[in-house]
Each structure stands twice: as structure tokens, then as C-alpha cells.
Write a structure and sequence with these properties.
heterodimer; A: Alpha-Beta Plaits; 6 strands; flat; B: Alpha-Beta Plaits; two-stranded antiparallel sheet
Chain lengths: ~120, ~140
């Protein structure tokens, strides 16, 4: 999974430059889906809420104009981390401060995997 | 805020490795509670299958993606451990679903984000173009 971090790249760009980045980004995604390397992807709105804690408190972002906020994601269908990183390096947002987090999707929930490992120890 | 969205919502689960502190029986309980929660949502057609993410990974940044660093770091509270795509129409419903997550009791926080119908960059580029036109008119 590629997570695109940084929702502040519009600052200081002209409409023409911004349109170019957007078009390049869409063309990049289309190329990846056409070759079967991306299976899904979406931009996220620059708004939302955070739910946290035992009391299930709802709070605001910030999701706009932030270096850390996630602006969208791609789900890739590639076999190796190297290939995923190579794709991430093609991201048209990189020159504008976007950072791409590359995360392997777990075949099994890591918590369940821990559980099996412990069960195995418990049996030995 | 426009709270009506046809494209659904994404839940991003953030946490540290809280489960490392739990006993075998406790973990077993959380895993089965969580599975039941997700199965319930998918059975009602409210969630599409989500995925858990491995704790390790890499971050690519810099002009030509020259900088590749390790991380995010597993022990950080901010690490995204998984996601779920919701098939609901309002932010209120998406928040209510997030609030029913069993993982909240263990310190997880859940980001609730509307999936964009149109890329926000594209929308902004058009707005900017209009502003620039007005400025030169």
C-alpha cells in the first residue's frame, strides 16, 4: 500500500503547475492500473474526524495544509518491497514535498500472527 | 462541512504495538471481537474487506524520490496499522461505526476520512485558474 503524506503542496503553485501535477498523477495511476500493478486507489477529502480512547471522543483533523496528513492511497499488486519502492519513486508529487509511505499489506493480521506464535510456544 | 458523500469513507487505524503488552487470552479475545465486528459490518454491506498493514515499511521523499528511509517505526502511536473502507453515506454514520470498534479500548485512534469524488488537487487547480483569470480581468 502506498500512502501519500502531505496535503500542503498547493501552496505557492500556479494553477497551471498544479494542473500539471494532477494530470501527471492521474496518468501515473492509469498506467499502473493498465499494467495490473495498482488494484485500487483514491484521494481523500481534506476533512474528517478522529475517534479515540475508551470514551470514544470525536475530534477534528487537521487534515488540510499538513505535512503529515494522508491525502490518498494506492493499493499495489506487486511481489516485492523493492518493486513497490520503485513505483513510489515515480510519484509526481515528490518534487513538491509529498512523501510516500510504502507499507506491506499483512497476509494475516499481525496481532493474530503474534497470537499463533504464542500459542505455539504455549504448546511446547 | 458537506457530510453527504457517495464514495464512502475510509477508516485508518492508528496505534502503537499495544497488543504486545497483553496476555495470550486477552489477545485472543481482542482478535475475535475485532473479527466479529468486521464480519458484522461486511454482512450488513457497510464495509468492504479491509487489510492490516505490517508494522515495517519505507518512506520515499525528495525531488526524484532519492531519499528512501526506514519507517514508520513500529513503536509510534501514529503508525497506521490497518484500514477499512465503509459503504455508508454520511460522516455521522461513519463516525458511529468507528466508535463501535473494539480496538478503541486499547488506545487505538481511528481517522474517519471521506473518500473524495474528485481529486482535491484537481478541484483546487480549477479554482486557482478562475482566481487568476479574475485577477487579470
Amino acid at each position: 500500500m502506498l500512502l501519500f503524506r502531505g496535503t500542503d503542496l498547493r501552496k505557492g503553485l500556479s494553477s497551471e503547475e498544479l494542473q500539471k501535477v494532477t494530470d501527471n498523477w492521474m496518468a501515473w495511476f492509469r498506467r499502473l492500473t493498465d499494467t495490473g500493478k495498482a488494484v485500487a486507489g483514491n484521494p481523500l477529502e481534506r476533512e474528517g474526524k478522529i475517534v479515540s480512547g475508551k470514551d470514544r471522543v470525536v475530534s477534528d483533523g487537521p487534515f488540510a495544509e499538513s505535512k503529515e496528513a494522508i491525502g490518498g492511497y494506492f493499493l499495489l499488486d506487486v511481489a516485492t518491497m523493492d518493486e513497490a519502492v520503485a513505483i513510489a519513486r515515480e510519484c509526481p508529487g515528490l518534487p513538491y514535498g509529498i512523501r510516500v509511505e510504502v507499507r506491506p499489506v499483512a497476509v494475516e493480521c499481525p496481532i493474530a500472527a503474534d497470537l499463533r506464535a504464542e500459542a505455539h510456544f504455549a504448546q511446547v | 462541512m458537506n457530510t453527504h458523500k457517495q464514495n464512502g469513507y475510509m477508516l485508518l487505524f492508528r496505534s502503537d504495538e499495544w497488543y504486545k503488552e497483553l496476555s495470550y487470552a486477552e489477545i485472543q479475545k481482542v482478535v475475535s471481537q475485532n473479527n466479529a465486528w468486521i464480519e458484522g459490518l461486511t454482512a450488513q454491506g457497510k464495509a468492504k474487506p479491509g487489510d492490516a498493514l505490517q508494522r515495517q515499511g519505507a518512506t520515499v521523499s525528495g525531488k526524484n524520490g532519492r531519499a528512501v528511509s526506514d519507517g514508520p517505526f513500529a513503536e509510534s502511536k501514529e503508525v497506521i496499522g490497518g484500514f477499512l473502507l465503509l459503504n455508508v453515506e454520511t460522516l455521522e454514520e461513519a463516525i458511529a461505526i468507528a466508535q463501535s470498534s473494539p480496538s478503541l479500548a486499547y488506545g487505538t485512534s481511528i481517522e474517519v476520512r471521506p473518500v473524495a469524488e474528485e481529486c482535491p488537487l484537481d478541484v483546487r487547480a480549477r479554482e486557482l485558474a478562475r482566481e487568476e483569470q479574475l485577477a487579470t480581468a
